[in-house]
């Protein structure tokens, strides 16, 4: 799964929103619970008080029957008529009352409990057969009132007109309990009984009467009218009231879907169990016939103390649901807009908090890209401010550290350069020393050989010369043989010169240190050179440094050195050219030999003190680069008649004088030989042994 990257602003927003959402959710749920439970509690509280009012109205109705019976029983007419058995007086009294007080039955019994007159059914008489807690107690002087369930036959006997109101067909509705009987054959009555006393207060009989509740909706409508007048919802009465005979609606203003009163329908099993079996109130939501009601039920207890029915009041649940819904909607809307404002605020705050972090990120990227001295301006006095401060400090320290590293690098590079240069110089010194060593070894070997050869040749040559001179003296000049003798003597001279050179080379001759006037030596050589080689086409120029004093050295040896150099220069210009001889004074310490080739640029080339530099420059053929390193070797020559000893001898002499000899040449253009000699003469130990 690829790593998803979430910006910090998003995370901060989520971080703020999660607790906000949880808080909103908790508020919402708590609010919902409080609103709903409060509304339900209010509704239930209302139906509870409504039920109390309904009970009062129900008791009032009983009280009314009670009053009628009580006051009639106290009437002296009733006692007198009962005592005398005046049937017509009883009829007049009771029938009138039955009609005027809207009772369904009104009977009078004598002291023995025999029914003397039934106002609802005057033809019927006979013994009283109902509950012992009713009329028998009245005969004992008590006033009794309450509810009573009377079987169909007894009702018919009391008042035949009631028979058709008793019968109620059971109708099944959703959620109602199942009832085995399909029809109700008994009636529920509000009854009262009171003693009939004569003038002396003796109970002479009892009067009892009642009204039947089956199919009589006056009481429930009265309850509804008093409790719920004009309380409507969607064009329908919201409040209802019912009287149950056991579980059956016998009087109600709850309507069935057809709009008719739902008489004959049943209560739910739940309500039945609680109210009729457990004899407790039931307050809560109940599905009544075709809709949900906030309902309150309480049992109706008869004179025998048995639960024989229930009194019900209820309000349609929909209005409450509606209020709940609207309140929830308003509350939800408030929370929703609150949440929106919260989201906007948290986004705003997150953005503000994340801005310096993003800036830091950008700056860090710029620093990583090589930018330096970047600073972030954050003035918040919190962790982000601290972070910005640390970043600025880090940036500054980084710049400083880098500068230090750069400085170190520069030093290091400088040191490496110096060390490399030293190494190169040391290498060159090594090469040069090695070459020097080889040259010295060669010189030693050649010197020894040359010394031996010269020594062996010298004696025979002395004999040859002696004899040749004797021969020259003996042969007259006009003799044709005198020319041969002359040739012998010239060749002997040549051989002696070679032998002398060889001996010089072998250092058989020792330095004779004295004063040597370089200018005079050079002038002398240039003056005589024409005798040795033709100077045709060659121009000679001199450039001597003024005030160049005599130097300490062997004048003969130095003459030989410069003779060699000037002779070589002239020989290098067979077709003519320019020969320039110059001197100059150089001073200082550790200077390098000017014009020396790279091989000679060694520490050895650095000389201390005051020196004289003599250069011999020609515009001749020059020296091939590959030969430059060899010209100072003995017997190296490119000339047909050359000995290759001139430069090697010169090299040795200059070295012995504590000086240096160097060459700079360009083939086809010319050559410059430079000789550097100490003005004060050779330092001790400067001599190089051959
Ligand atoms: P030689 O003159 O007998 O050859 P040197 O030792 O004097 O012996 O010279 C060695 C070689 O150096 C010469 O053969 C020549 O090739 C070269 N040489 C010396 N001086 C010059 C010069 N001025 N111009 C060109 N080549 C030179």
Keywords:
690 residues, six-stranded antiparallel sheet, Helix Hairpins, 3 domains, 22 strands, Beta-Lactamase, alpha+beta, Heat Shock Protein 90
Q: Would you give an account of this structure?
A:
The protein is of the alpha+beta class. It folds into three domains: 1-371, LuxQ periplasmic domain, N-terminal subdomain (Beta-Lactamase, 2-Layer Sandwich), CATH 3.30.450.220; 373-505, Signal transduction histidine kinase, dimerisation/phosphotransfer (DHp) domain (Helix Hairpins, Orthogonal Bundle), CATH 1.10.287; 510-678, 2-Layer Sandwich (Heat Shock Protein 90). It contains 15 helices and 22 strands. Strands 3-2-1-8-7-4 form a six-stranded antiparallel β-sheet. It is rod-shaped. The two termini are 88 Å apart. It binds adenosine-5'-diphosphate.
Summarize the structure.
This protein is of the alpha+beta class.
Report the CATH topology name of the largest domain: Beta-Lactamase
How large is the radius of gyration?
78 Å
Which percent range describes the beta-strand content? 15-25%
Ligand identities = adenosine-5'-diphosphate
Major beta-sheet overview: 6 strands, antiparallel
Q: CATH H-level name of the largest domain... which superfamily?
A: LuxQ periplasmic domain, N-terminal subdomain
Distance between the termini: 88 Å
Task: Give the proportion of residues in helices.
Answer: 40-55%
| CATH architecture heading of the largest domain | 2-Layer Sandwich
- Output the structural class: alpha+beta
Domain unit count: 3
Low-confidence stretches: 593-605, 684-690
Please tell me what the overall shape is.
rod-shaped
The CATH class of the largest domain turns out to be Alpha Beta
Please report the total strand number as a whole number.
22
